[in-house]
Structures are given as structure tokens and as C-alpha cells.
Amino acid sequence: MKFYEVQQYFTEVNYQFHPDPFYVNAAWWNSLPEEYRTIISECATAMGEYNDQLIDENSEAAKQAIVDAGCEVYEPTDDEIKAFQEAVQGVYDQCVAEGICTAEELAKMQDIVANAK
């Protein structure tokens, strides 16, 4: 996105997660023979793993492009990341209070993220 053209300092906080889900029409999916659904599921899983690999590789390349452009990239300490996480806890509480998700759903999402790579 060429942010390095307009800013010199970056902080690497990894606060976003952008999965690339595989969507299909449920009626079409359910019309397929089980064998086809199995094959497609296996291929979609393999594609997802490869996609994750490409994201990792491209993230490092993008970071290097920022550094090569003369920018500074700050990597917070574990304590700083923990403070950041604690500071945004209110957002999670608000999501539950407003019914955007349940506490159980939130806990499941947080568990998935915590255990990702």
C-alpha cells in the first residue's frame, strides 16, 4: 500500500487477522456426492495452508520494502504487547454487551487466534 511514502515510523503490532475463507452455495454443496465434498474439502484445506505460507512470505517482503525505503519499524516487547491487549479489553466487553457476539463465541475466536501459528 506504499504507506512508507507518507510515514517514516511503523510499529509492528499484528492486531489484524485476515483469513481467506472458502465459500460455496450450501444447496450446491449439499447436492454433491460425499466423495466430491471430501476432495474439495481436502483441496481447500491445502489451499488455505499454502495461502498462509504466501501471507507469511509476503509479510516479510513487505516489511523489508518498508525498511529499504528508509523507514523505521519498531517491534514492541512482550510486555508492551500485553499492555496493548489489556487496553483494548473494553472493546471485547462492548461487543458482548451489545450482542455482537456471546462471551463463549469471543473466547473461541480468541483461542483460535492465540493458537494460530
How are the elements arranged and paired?
Blueprint: E1 9-11, H1 26-31, H2 34-68, E2 72-74, H3 78-87, H4 89-97, H5 103-114
Q: Low-confidence spans: pLDDT under 50, at least 5 residues? A: none
Largest sheet: 2 strands, parallel
Ends: how far apart? 25 Å
- Report the portion of residues in β strands: 5-15%
Strand order of the largest sheet: 1-2
Principal-axis shape: flat
The tally of helices reads: 5
Rg to the nearest angstrom?
A: 19 Å
Tally of structural domains: 2
**Approximate helicity band:** 55-70%
**Helix/strand/pairing class, anyone?**
mainly alpha
Q: In sequence order, what are the helices and strands, one letter per element?
A: EHHEHHH
Number of strands: 2
* Average residue-wise pLDDT: 90
In short:
The protein is mainly alpha-helical and 117 residues long. 62% of the residues lie in helices and 5% in strands. It is flat, with a radius of gyration of 19 Å.
Tell me what the structure shows.
62% of the residues lie in helices and 5% in strands. Strands 1-2 form a two-stranded parallel sheet. The mean pLDDT is 90. It is built from five helices and two strands, in the order βααβααα. The protein has 117 residues and is mainly alpha-helical. It folds into two domains: 7-75, no CATH class; 77-117. The protein has helices at residues 26-31, 34-68, 78-87, 89-97, 103-114, and strands at 9-11, 72-74. The chain is flat, with a radius of gyration of 19 Å.
